[in-house]
């Protein structure tokens, strides 16, 4: 079982254009899709598509449109009822793959709702191999909630992965999660420096800054660090070493959810006993496949180009 937690889920509405976005002008949509969203839900959908047991945990009322969409996908999930509807996140996708995302803040959780969500996560983790804590936190939820949940899960013997940003990310490192999945900007948040510079260096072939920062973070947490670098690929850093993978060539349709699919690919491969190199290969294959699909559509194994992913160790 791979349990995912999405504290701030969403309905993801994607508007696809047949021409570049023209600010201040009226344009017609070529296509519109609505899909269940939020990082943890995206991870769970990819894991479910790979045939592994998964459970998505989230807050949402029983008649919320998100719950209805989840029922339609067949994704196993459990939710804590809340009074307000979940947010809707808007993505505008241009023909060249450029995506513009506008995220709503989401409904706040009361102290009682948050306590029930925390207890539900602990209960759902009873037979879980991994618990993935994913995405932003709703308004009013303490920045250290992921850290507190991680400590509780560790006390129960569970492994925890975290994919978040901002204050919740800064609060999590001291909780020593077993896996962190930052991008270049989030890695810079944790270690210091400039995320754009890290990403630009990687795109130019200089992986030393990313490797150095990821190694420092892995030493701090004692766990693995999977750093996604967009079109440049990804770096995996563990106690055993560091590896870099470049993605296959694809036609980018939407980058929304690609990082979530990368995390899913890593957890799927780890669940199957893969080596660090093959965990990274699978992560990059999943992320690339997601970017080639519309909206936040999760890839399944038939979408993967594992042979097109090239992995090499970093000294």
TrEMBL record:
Q: Which UniProt keywords apply?
A: ATP-binding, Kinase, Nucleotide-binding, Transferase
Q: Where is the signal peptide?
A: none
Give residue ranges for domain Carbohydrate kinase PfkB: 8-302
Query: Which Pfam families does this UniProt record tie to the protein?
Result: PfkB
Cite the GO molecular-function annotations of the record.
kinase activity
Give a yes or no for keyword Nucleotide-binding in this entry: yes
Q: Does the keyword Acetylation apply?
A: no
Into which family does the record put it? Belongs to the carbohydrate kinase PfkB family.
Please name the PANTHER family in this protein's record: 1-PHOSPHOFRUCTOKINASE, 1-PHOSPHOFRUCTOKINASE-RELATED
This protein is called what? Hexose kinase
Organism whose genome encodes this protein = Gordonia alkaliphila
């Amino acid at each position: 079982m791979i349990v995912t937690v999405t504290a701030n889920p969403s309905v993801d509405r994607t508007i696809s254009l047949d021409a570049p976005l023209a600010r201040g002008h009226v344009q017609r949509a070529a296509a519109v899709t609505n899909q269940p969203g939020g990082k943890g839900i995206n991870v769970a959908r990819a894991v479910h598509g790979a045939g592994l047991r998964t459970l998505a945990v989230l807050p949402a009322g029983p008649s919320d449109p998100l719950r209805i969409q989840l029922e339609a996908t067949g994704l196993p999930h459990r939710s804590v009822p809340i009074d307000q509807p979940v947010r809707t996140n808007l993505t505008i996708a241009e023909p060249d793959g450029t995506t513009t995302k506008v995220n709503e803040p989401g409904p706040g959780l009361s102290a009682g709702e948050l306590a029930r969500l925390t207890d539900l996560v602990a209960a759902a983790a009873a037979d879980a191999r991994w618990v993935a804590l994913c995405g932003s936190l709703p308004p009013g939820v303490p920045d250290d909630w992921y850290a507190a949940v991680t400590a509780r899960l560790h006390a129960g013997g569970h492994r925890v992965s975290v994919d978040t940003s901002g204050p919740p990310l800064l609060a999590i490192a001291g909780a020593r999660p077993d896996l962190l999945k930052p991008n270049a900007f989030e890695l810079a948040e944790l270690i210091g420096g400039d995320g754009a510079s890290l990403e630009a260096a990687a795109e130019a072939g200089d992986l030393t800054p990313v490797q150095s920062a990821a190694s420092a973070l892995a030493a701090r947490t004692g766990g693995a660090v999977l750093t996604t670098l967009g079109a440049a690929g990804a770096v995996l850093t563990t106690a055993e070493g560091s590896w870099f993978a470049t993605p296959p060539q694809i036609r980018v349709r939407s980058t929304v959810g690609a990082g979530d699919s990368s995390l899913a690919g890593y957890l799927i491969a780890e669940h199957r006993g893969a080596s660090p190199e093959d965990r990274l290969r699978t992560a990059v294959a999943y992320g690339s496949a997601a970017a080639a699909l519309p909206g936040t559509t999760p890839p399944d194994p038939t979408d993967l180009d594992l042979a097109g992913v090239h992995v090499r160790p970093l000294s």
